[in-house]
Design a protein that fits this description.
By secondary structure, the chain is an alpha/beta fold. Helix 3 links the parallel strand 3 and strand 4. The protein is globular and about 45 Å long. The strands form three sheets. It has a four-stranded mixed β-sheet, with no helix packed on it. A three-stranded mixed β-sheet has the order 7-2-10, with no helix packed on it. A three-stranded parallel β-sheet has the order 4-3-5, sandwiched between helices. It is 34% helix and 13% strand.
Length: 278
């Protein structure tokens, strides 16, 4: 089954609660369940807020590499955890530890150093995805956060043509991820994907390339939840408003954990996103 939230024309609204409307504050809200007022820049620093990934690892008693974050932007590595080494974290150009790597991963890691990007602190999403896919095959993590972001790069460059081209590529990465999961025994028929974004963009021809506090549209996002434990709703219509922080509780709910034990102030799970458990 699956559901997609965020089409306001159909009465489904998903917004960020943080007042910054850019990347790190968005990822922090997503990872902690609520906005974190001191996150006001994209600087690569760790904040003391425990994240849903840290909580999941501890609550489920998982090994270091059974929770993993692999992303194209270094900021994701910092948003993922309140401390270094809490689980496997891989930034825009980091190697993967030898014990967890493969020749394919090493090749993609090398290519990351050489394939040029629009921003120096990011790497190619296709390479990030390939690293994540091979990591998934070799190490079979229980929880994996894959972070991609080149749509943002091309939009800031005012290349709407490349944004559209990229979205087709990103769609194919999601198709490939789903097919990869369904081809593997531990994941087939048992895995949920939550797909979302850190912020929206301006709504007008003048400001669509940007996003920031006050640029209307930047606060609007969407969430897709796909998997066997989610009702086959499709596009959600006439639903209660949802905020970005719901991602944390929704994820914990699908892992069979009580989200209130993580953060009682977190946004509640997406209503109706989990079928009644038999």
């Amino acid at each position: 089954g699956g559901m997609v939230l965020g089409n306001q024309a159909k009465g489904s609204k998903v917004t960020v609660r943080n007042d910054q409307w850019f990347s790190y504050p968005g990822y922090s809200e997503m990872m902690t369940g609520e906005p974190q007022p001191e996150v006001t820049s994209n600087d690569f620093v760790r904040y003391p807020h425990r994240t849903v990934l840290e909580h999941a690892r501890e609550a489920l008693g998982l090994e270091h590499a059974q929770v993993a974050q692999i992303g194209s932007w270094d900021g994701l590595k910092y948003a993922a955890s309140s401390r270094d080494g809490a689980f496997l974290m891989n930034g825009g150009r980091d190697p993967v530890p030898a014990a967890l790597s493969t020749p394919e991963i090493d090749l993609y890691v090398d290519l990351r150093q050489q394939v040029q990007q629009f921003w120096e602190e990011t790497s190619s999403d296709v390479l990030t995805y390939r690293i994540a896919r091979e990591f998934l095959r070799k190490n079979q993590p229980r929880v994996l956060w894959i972070g991609i972001g080149q749509s943002d790069d091309w939009a800031h460059a005012r290349r709407y043509d490349l944004v559209l081209d990229y979205l087709h590529i990103a769609d194919q990465l999601l198709v490939d991820l789903w097919q990869t999961l369904q081809s593997m025994e531990p994941y087939r028929g048992r895995t949920t994907l939550i797909v979302t974004t850190d912020h929206g963009r301006g709504r007008t021809p003048a400001d669509w390339a940007e996003h920031d506090a006050g640029i209307q549209g930047s606060q609007d996002i969407w969430i897709a939840i796909i998997g066997p434990d989610t009702p086959a709703v499709g596009e959600v219509t006439d639903a209660a408003d949802v905020t970005q922080g719901t991602v944390a509780a929704t994820m914990l709910q699908h892992l069979g954990l009580d989200w209130r034990k993580f953060n009682p102030d977190a946004a509640a799970p997406v209503p109706g996103s989990l079928k009644p458990q038999r």
